[in-house]
Specification:
The protein is of the alpha/beta class and about 375 residues long. It has 15 helices and 13 strands. The longest helix has 19 residues.
Amino acid sequence: MRVLSIFGTRPEAIKMAPVIRALNREPGMESMVCVTAQHREMLDQVLSLFDIRPDVDLDLMRPGQSLAEITAEVFTHLDPVLANLQPDWVLVQGDTTTVMASSLLAYYHGVKVGHVEAGLRTRDKWQPFPEEVNRMVTAVVADLHFAPTEWARQNLLSENIPSSHIVVTGNPVIDALQWVAKQPFDMRTLNIPELGNAKVRLILVTAHRRENFGEPLENICQALRKVANKYREQVHLVYPVHLNPNVQEPVYRLLDDVPNITLIPPLDYLPMVNLIKRATLVLTDSGGLQEEAPALGVPVLVMREKTERPEGVDAGTVRLVGTNPEQIYAEACRLLDDKVAHEEMARAINPYGDGQAAGRIVEAILKYT
């Protein structure tokens, strides 16, 4: 059985790495990897960390390219790859442009599609944009849907996808996280002296989503500035800033002069996991951090209006706070000031799995008829 895993961004690579390892261990399976390199720099360090050597590297990233351009590039360059490799299965993960285009192209070639982390929904095609539509397109053509949770499974059932084609596996990001968290890392290499002071609480920040560009991101920065000013010597905020100019410009303009905020380039996954472990609190608009931080006992405030991961909200591991600066500020202060509230979130059970998702995914492929 020939299985081709296709991905293009760092989050996809992180979540697919355990699956690729499980495929490589399975007798009778030929595992192949194709990267579109939709995000070149952030992808390569994950490939190195997990020792993944792509069989095909399309290297499609170009500065300032539009969604239409990257979609067209995936179609054009992946088409001959599928014709040449003739896989039995294509595996994709999540909801990027790479996922949508690859799954549709696999369908054109008559190749079965397995969708890892299937069934996430906000029911709003603009939030997140374009991810909500990407994952719905993928669901239409997928043959096997690997749902991370029962909630995701119910979403797929409501779209008339047969229950026999859906497997609740947990999320392979937990598999990856558990492995990476055990790897050695020296925090001093980050050159942030405050991390060595046990009395200073760390707030880890990420904000980069397309729907937050403009005023929402400026509001987020205002809230971060206000939190930093209130807690000065007690709290230090570390913000790895996405390379997109729509993020870089407002973040550096509004936060670069705040003494207890450190703005740094995007981090490799190993130091990022260690920052999560060191953090008291995570403020983010990311999807993956809503799953990863709770697995390490760290509360998360989600700076988005909607989330496709409500299981964390229901479980109490994350709280949806939107992009209103006063709301972000109030919720951050509550968790910094109220030990009981912080402990309730930190001790809540993470709903995203037990670290065995990859094995369940491979087993489901083997059993598919």
